[in-house]
Records
---
Amino acid sequence: MGAEKIIVVGGGPAGMMAAIRAASLGQDVTLIEKNHFLGKKLLLSGKGRCNLTNLSDPESFLKRFSKSGQFLRDAFKKFFNQDLINFFKNRGLELKVERQLRVFPATARANSVLEVLKKELFKNKVKIIYKTQLRDIFIQDNKVKKLLLSDGLILATNKIILATGGISFGFTGSTGEGLAIAKRLGHTITTLRPGLVPLETKQKYPKILEGLTLKNICLKFFDGQRQILSDIGELLFTSFGISGPLVLSLSGQIVDWLNEGKYVYVEIDLKPALSVEQLNARLTREFKLNSKKTLKNVLKNLLPKRLVGIFVEIADIKPTRKVNQINREERKKLISLLKGLHLDILQARPIKEAMITRGGVSLKNINPRTMESRIIKGLYFAGEMIDVDADTGGFNFQAAFSTGYLAGESAALSSYQLKAEG
Ligand SMILES: Cc1cc2nc3c(=O)[nH]c(=O)nc-3n(C[C@H](O)[C@H](O)[C@H](O)COP(=O)(O)OP(=O)(O)OC[C@H]3O[C@@H](n4cnc5c(N)ncnc54)[C@H](O)[C@@H]3O)c2cc1C
């Protein structure tokens, strides 16, 4: 049949799925990966367990993306969470659904996901070139013609799928060369910034509390005018500030506020289930029951032990004071701190420490129905290098797999179309 050669660059989830789909449609596919193995970031994902997708319904799913979610409608129509689940199940991988509808391999090992993808690449006869980087793409009449690799090899092709990822966790291979090439070819790259990233605080007490996780708390971030309220969940203190699921989820918005030059602070509601009045009643009761005990000891009934010392210091009350000596004003202060422990946000951690890169190839430059560039014919994009990003929970992988699938299919079908026309 003399199939067209399709070259996929980047052996992450997006590139692997693109190569598998194009090859399953009978195309001659070559996958180029600069590492000596595939899926380096995938192996780190979900703390080594790989949260590969989420079972939310389509509308709730799209809401977990920043503004750009609508762009993915066509990709999700083509290949969504249940399709991905079936893809793995049909190839023998058991999956399990955990809290918040997160889907993991039942083995709890990311490597099981990678093994299925590798087997499928092999089965579909995808050629893989390792330890080789894409250096450049050559264009003629706005169409892909050939590409240059780091070993000096030039490959002729009129279909390239770029899936080189973002620029976070660069040691895994995603260092942005694909984005630079796309830019040189005339695409707009929207500002690259960290997403799902820990935050640094002005106050130093998080360092003293490093490693402590506060459960069932709620965060309120402020920028002077606007505020965002988190769900109820966990906060982790780190050596430089705060992290944990609630912080990571809201960090994209906070980074945008900081980039606007806003003064941003957060208030930690340590007792979100209780109103101020209920908390007042609770404290009054505790103080009555334990009237001869010290404040420090009584607060241990309300707060994690490690937090108590710092909390009392911030309240500026002597920890050894007996609770029957705490006056009304001091009790009010304690309540206000329990409902809003304050931290000033200085900045986000650097992008290399972010779980994802926000920004990338502008959505205006990509046809959402095919993933083909609107500028260069025969050039397709997939995965994190596109300007889409989502919350934690398996949404980013699904976007990578779905855009990869669609790009692979579009490149393959357009090859047949070209041949029919020729
Ligand atoms: C610690 C961590 C945990 C995560 N956990 C989850 C999770 O559980 N669930 C989830 O949904 N998301 C998770 N993510 C996000 C997810 O890993 C990414 O969104 C996803 O890997 C993006 O896939 P991709 O294929 O677009 O890019 P990548 O996975 O980054 O793959 C890009 C590939 O391209 C290669 N490459 C780059 N440039 C070149 C070049 N010039 N030539 C040849 N090859 C090149 C790279 O070596 C790399 O292998 C996590 C991210 C991190 C950092």
---
Amino acid sequence: MTIQLTSKLPHVGTTIFSTMTKLSNDLGAINLSQGFPNFDPPDALRALVTYHLNNGKNQYAPMAGVPKLRAQIAAKVADLYGRNISVDDEITVTNGATEGLFVAINTVINLGDEVIIFDPAFDSYQPVIELNGGRTIHIPLDAPNFAIDWQRVRDSISPKTRLILLNFPHNPTGTILTPADLETLVEIVRDTNIFLLSDEVYEHIIFDGIAHQSLLCHAELAERTFVVSSFGKTYHATGWKIGYCIAPSHLTAEFRKIHQFLVYSIFSPAQHALADFLEQSPETHKNLAQFYQQKRDRFCNLLTDSRFKFTPTQSTFFQLLDYSTLTDLTDIEYARQLIQDIGVASIPISAFYKEKPPQHYLRFCFAKDDATLAEAASRLCGI
Ligand SMILES: Cc1ncc(COP(=O)(O)O)c(C=O)c1O
């Protein structure tokens, strides 16, 4: 007898990332679809992990994270965003940003609560909201500028709004926040019971000399915000799945109640290694923008003579290309065709919109070595 299971996530199927990566692997294409580098974390960081593996750091780490790592995160936040946070009470090391997002949403969302998110949205947000009985309110970032429509945010707020989930620098559009955006956000949430969850995994990848506006920069926002980040994006180590969540102490206390029963603690040798590396090499995260800006410029320059239209992205390691002059195919159809015909895999962004997705945009990840970018660009220019 087959026992019937009631799915908690009936609408979730295979993600577009899995579909495109599988097709890409099957056909041996250049995979610019999923967001991961094809180069290794810094040598010194890898050596530190090996060192700690061989020197006794192999048992459970403290539930909140290795104290030295939390201290280094606090020092970085003070340095970059001018906010002093409590090492003991306001930082939790998580199993990637993904766990931080999962736990933060679990911490604040109850049955019937509404959560505002901006489309195209990272694919984990809505399922976690649904698992908690919440309702997702989608606000699109409309092409071609993909800017936030703050009036639409105001109009979307109801007595049930409990959380606004932001992801800036934004994957996949590269949209960033300005100080004026933070001021508008403060005006909107002031005197409400709305929490904020800020997914800042691309905090160090922002171009052309512009400073990232972390929600931690703003005292009034920081009081109601969970900020999530990831070492995966910063140190080319997406496979380690180590991130962190910063929130005021009363929110962190509730966050940790869930974190401790979900994973308890995070891979210990890497936490010790990251703590040492942050102390020894702060220039690595400070130089990351420059590192990726060179890759963005290289990729965009190589595509100048292509038939795609684009504006160089302001942040992240993703470049959107507009193919509207090439074909009327949907972005999903065209992404498949590019894999099959020229062996280059990308991500169609319509998959991340609830309604009225902009057509004709594909996302390409340029976190790749120069030879890979050159070969991919040459194939794209041949169209
Ligand atoms: C916007 C965004 N948030 C969260 C994550 C997940 O980060 P992690 O791999 O640290 O869980 C990603 C990874 O692609 C991302 O792009």
---
Amino acid sequence: MPRKMHSPRRKHVPQRTCIACRQAEGKRSLTRLVRTETGVEIDPSGKRAGRGAYIHPYRECWDSALRSNRIEQALRTKLSQDDRLRLAAYMDTLPSAVQDAPEDGPAEIGNSAPAN
Ligand SMILES: [Zn+2]
């Protein structure tokens, strides 16, 4: 088996690796985290500038990434208490990978209050 199994050349789907479970997925199947000047944030558009990391929108992956400091490693930063709370709150809105995941993705975050 060749180590590098590249996808057929006509369809160009960028693959990203989940920082928690290390499975590669099309980047649209993963949630992007981005390091900003004010901390680590979720980047639903996937377009914000800054160092990014990808993770499955499943509770298990977030839980494991938060516990094992994979987010910190991937983003080469330290998570503040604030970051952790925000990420944990987001994790709570996510479906579990073992239940049947809703077709339309993770629950919406709701109307978040503007920061400052
Ligand atoms: Zn994962």
